Amino acid sequence: MRKLSDAGVETNRPNDYFAEMAKKDDHMKKVGDKLLALKNRQEMTERNRNNFKLRKYGKQVQRAVTLERQMKKKETLNSIKKYRKGKTTNPDFLDETSKENGPHGKKVSQFQKLQKQNVKRNYRDQKYGFGGKKKGQKRNTNESSNNVSGFKKNVHGAKKKNVRPGKTRRTKLKSKR
Fold first, then answer.
1. If pLDDT is split at 50, 70 and 90, which confidence band does 98 have?
2. Which among 123, 91, 92, 116 has a CA at the least distance from the CA of 102?
3. What's the Rg (C-alpha) of the chain?
4. Which of 79, 115, 151, 158 is the 20 to 30 A CA-CA neighbour of 143?
5. pLDDT at 144 over 80
């Protein structure tokens, strides 16, 4: 190439040079599309492989976290059992702060969590009742049927004025005239 350029022979095709191609344009377009599809498929498989690896790693981490939580739960339940049976006298296991942060970024102790649960439980027991007979609770009693404190006259009792009488009443009125 160097010798040709030194001799002054042009090796590059001029810009205005038009020649017949060996293959048609539509065929070359198909080839280009095929190559592009192949490239996209390879990228997709690579992406899927990476996602699979990430999911696998995430599952391992999640498994480890759940095992750790189960172990902690087991330990606290065992310490609660020991406290109930009287084997230990100090309830230190309740004051251990959990790693989870509570509202406003403050750490909530397990004792406080138990208290909160008890408050909810007590409220539900008070509202819905605790144990006892379930059948016939919604049935009317003498007291409930005689109680008219919830009766709203404007909703239930007020009748509309100037309402057209029914057909039988109209016929009776006609017969009286």
1. very low
2. 116
3. 43
4. 158
5. yes
